[in-house]
Amino acid sequence: MHTALRYLPLATLLYAGLACADTPLDLTHPATPKAHVSISNIKGEVTVTTWDRNEVHVGGSLGDGARPLAITGSDGDLEIKVQAQGKSGVFNWGSDNAMGSTTLDVQVPRGASLEVNVVSAPLSVDGTDGGAIEVNSVSGKVRIHARTPSLQVDSVSGGIEQSGKADRAELQTVSGDILAPALGDQAKLETVSGRVQVRGGPWRTFTLSTVSGDADVSGGLAADGRMDIDSMSGDVQLMLPADVAAAIHASSFSGDLRSDFGKAEHNEHGPGSELTVQQGSGSARIGVESFSGDVRIRRQGD
Amino acid sequence: MNDFEWRRQLRELRQPQAPRRDLWADIERSLDRAAATEAAPRRAAATRTTWLFAAGLAAVTVLAVGLMRMAPTAAPAASADLASVPVWKPDDPRLAGAAIELTAAQYELRQAIQQSPNSAALQRLLDRTEQQESRLRQLGHDAS
């Protein structure tokens, strides 16, 4: 009896440890080659990789306090959703205080399309080819390495890193940085204070708006392409191919404007400077407007 | 380091610094003390000063009325806009930082629009910033 009492605290601790331990995940569901896979996780991590099987597999571990996880839906439209116990609602991520971190290692068919909602969970997508990707994140970093016809990422403070090829991309942050060196022919980028560094083209349409984040853009335009860059106080550096054929118009209210394509003119009556130049014979148009940020328009290779 | 990078780093230094303690109480006390010590020896000249002050006030009033008639009507509206920037304070700490960023950005954009009222780019930026705030408000709503 005394021996049993002696080991009671240890047994209690062991039981408590087991109760709080994360639950290993090993779930599989059949999937079509171009299945749409929806993933939601609030806290922890999400990693999506591809394989040559018509199945979706979920590994990793389920955090303490989460509902038992299941892959739901049909073979062509699957859902993996981490939720806190006793909570309901569409996303309900404010409930994450009652739940431990969940790590999701998801394998999907290479041609799958993805819709991922994460809050404080970093997301990594690697290797998908051909499917659209849509991501909503709050503070988790988003890293996408994929070939996709359509990439849409909305993030608050988490940064976005894109590689591979995105034919059409819409990337938006409040304070997160945007690093996208492989943007296809349509790109729309928005940030408040994040730094933007992008490459790609030739773009048919390219739109960038930043309030105070600096932007570094390198790429050319399609024959009838259109590029618009708006900045309030962020500095803008635009690198264009030496043989760019476009009408370039740039202006800054109080920032410093310099260009390798023509000389900026200072306004005679009031602040600001402006550049208007036709480069080559193309019908493409480039517009850069800044309030107090500096603008540099450079020729690639100089 | 190139010129562009140098300027960027210089710009990053231009951040507001909050004092470690509230300075207004001491400033107010000092002003009160200064006013009290200056008041006594100047009683003798009070009558002359009063007349000068009244004349000055009348001149300033005439000038102000004239300027108000000349000024474009948009200026007072813009000032009202600046004062009426709604402050959004979400409960979730992950959104609170973004809310501060968005409020500051909207305030700065409105200030910039006052200086450059014909800038379509600034208006587009303000519209997009407001749309971002709407999206985050919806996120905050979903969180609760």
Core attributes:
heterodimer, A: 302 residues, mainly beta, 1 helix, B: 144 residues, mainly alpha, 2 domains, 6 helices, extended
Write the layout of secondary structure elements.
The complex is a heterodimer of chains A (302) and B (144).
Chain A: H1 2-20, E1 23-24, E2 27-30, E3 36-51, E4 55-62, E5 71-74, E6 77-81, E7 102-109, E8 113-120, E9 123-129, E10 133-137, E11 142-155, E12 160-172, E13 178-191, E14 196-210, E15 215-231, E16 236-240, E17 246-252, E18 257-259, E19 265-266, E20 273-279, E21 284-290, E22 295-299
Parallel strand pairs in A: 3-6, 3-7, 3-8, 3-9, 8-10, 9-11, 10-11, 11-12, 12-13, 13-14, 14-15, 15-16, 15-21, 16-22, 17-21, 18-22
Antiparallel strand pairs in A: 1-4, 2-4, 4-7, 5-6, 17-20, 19-20
Chain B: H1 3-13, H2 24-39, H3 46-70, H4 74-83, H5 93-115, H6 120-143
